[in-house]
Amino acid sequence: MSIGSELTAARERADLSIEQLSAATRIRPGLLLAMEADDFSRCGGNFYARGHIRAIARVVKADPAPLLASFDETHPAVEPDQHRREDRAKGKAPMLHPARPRWAVVLGAILVGLMGWGMIRLFTLPSDVEANASRSTPTASVTAPVVKPTVTKPPVKATTRPKPPVSKRVTVTLKAARDGSYVTLRNYDGLKLFQGLLGPGSTQTVSYPGTIRVSLGSVGNIAITINGKPVTPKAKRFTITPTGAVQKD
After folding, report:
1. Which residues pair with 248 in a beta bridge?
2. Is the model more confident about 137 or about 235?
3. CATH number 3.40.50 given to 170-248
4. Assigned CATH for 3-74
5. What number of H helices and E strands is found in the chain?
């Protein structure tokens, strides 16, 4: 039996509702329903989850030691990564940048060269023009237009890509009645598809192309429809196959 199931059984033996247990332990009803569904991620860490388990056990007059032992086995504490601390303590090695050329000096040399060439051309230009004028005579030039050949490209045929096959999807609709229930939907690998508290009259629909694992806080408060067909599960946890069949988890 899981920790959530043991908490639920202890609360029912104490003849307490979720609201009464919440008032006695000062724990939110939604968090209590999540813990009874074996979802301790909303507690804020293992330290707070262990404190909530002790508070619930004290109110329902149950022994907290077995519950805490089961919780420690399924939720081991994460040890700090010492390698990251050592890497942060090490200083960064100095980086050597290659020597860059002094562009100001290079540009200055280029400008001086251009100015010298301009001064030489300024003083020698008249004599060069007169010499060239006496040696050459103007000639008329005729430029014929160049006709470019036209190339006709063959029409490109449009290629049609085959459509990808449509995968079968399972559509699950959950409708809450009476006091509602806490619901968790996961895929086969444990990825959450939906998680939350369904209040009275609320509806949630999930469509997924694969196996869906369902966990309910209260089976009698949730009406389930799979691919448009109503289904009445007998357990709080069950699996829906891609064909829409219900299997016990």
Report:
1. 238
2. 235
3. no
4. 1.10.260.40
5. 7, 9
